[in-house]
Amino acid sequence: MPKNTPSFSKKLISWYLHNKRELPWRGTKNPYHIWLSEIMLQQTRVAQGLPYYLKFIENYPTVQQLAHAPEDAVLKLWQGLGYYSRARNLHATAKMVSKDLKGVFPKTYKDLLQLKGVGDYTASAIASICYNLPEAVVDGNVYRVLSRYFGISTPINSSAGQKEFKKLAQLVIDTNEPGTYNQAIMEFGARFCVPQNPNCGNCIFNDSCEAYKSNKVSELPVKLKSKAVRKRFFNYMVIISEDEKTLLQQRLGKGIWHKLYEFPLIETSEEVTLSELKKLPQFQKFSENMEIESISLYNETPIVHKLSHQHLLTRFWIVTSKKEVKNLIPISEIFKYAVPVLIENFVSEFFEGS
Fold it and tell me: The HhH-GPD domain covers which part of the protein (predicted)?
């Protein structure tokens, strides 16, 4: 048994009750609200996710209403939050709960794991907060607190580390108040035991934290180096017709931004000049049956859009055409479509600013 386990959990809960942020999903055990908040806060800070949570609750107060919403509407409401597979999984799960489970969320950790997009962390959060089950959450904040307090140097992104920390988390959870404890350790990691320069001198654990005693706070937790970042070169062809229309296409292949809309895209292995662009087979296909009047580069310096494990170096080419192009939409309707934030920023700058 780890040292001072009851003291550790009791101290955390006490700190939490005196210092917690008042957030709309706290103070409720409604599994729809908890599930929604947990999905949104994966890989997202509370300050960024909070407005989206409020928008979703306002537009879809129940899981049944979310289930019956068009997918495009859900993606549009999610726009800007990133990791769009979360939104698609959210919608799929809402349909499953509404139809197959008669609108009632599963009440056990094991059954919660059967929901699309719900992993160990989210299932543990819902099980503990909504149903008072002793299922410990483990996320980046929890890894950091446990690693430092207990002085564990096993890499958190290794299979051995994930098993070790999950086992430890289960050992130290307060079984009488598992939901409160889980929220406490996440809150403590997010607001006090932060990644850089935590205020250890005023920490409630400065008399028992192994990392603080051994001066290893900055070294823990240990994380194995991730794979190198891949660079991709995007060239968006922004068609502008004489009657103020443009073309958007839906991404249907595997990979980033599935089912979101974008301008016709030509991806290259490096930056290209206009003459080089025109020689590409992708450009030949794009310009078929199109009487191009002019092509001009909107941004000479690529916009660097950073995603996990890849950076998109993006340039927008403005294409005017004399001949009528199929499937164009009025420029004024672009804002109705769910697009990546990269496209949204360009649209706001180019069309609204012009």
Answer: 40-191
Helices 120-131 and 178-191, packing angle to 10 deg: 130
The answer to whether position 26 is within a domain reads yes
Domain that holds residue 214: 5-219
- 337, 234: one domain: yes
Band the pLDDT of 40: cuts 50, 70, 90: very high
Q: Are residues 59 and 174 in the same domain?
A: yes
Q: How far apart are CA 140 and CA 129, in angstroms?
A: 19
Q: Identify residue 269 by its one-letter amino acid code.
A: S
> What number of other Cβ atoms are within 10 A of residue 344's Cβ?
16
Q: Catalytic one among 38, 135, 187, 262?
A: 38
CA atoms within 13 A on the CB side of 88: 11
pLDDT of 234: 97
Considering the entire predicted model, what is its pTM? 0.85
Does residue 76 sit within a domain? yes
Is there a catalytic annotation at residue 177? Answer: no
Q: Which residues pair with 234 in a beta bridge?
A: 267, 314
For the cut 70, the answer to whether the pLDDT of residue 2 exceeds it is: no
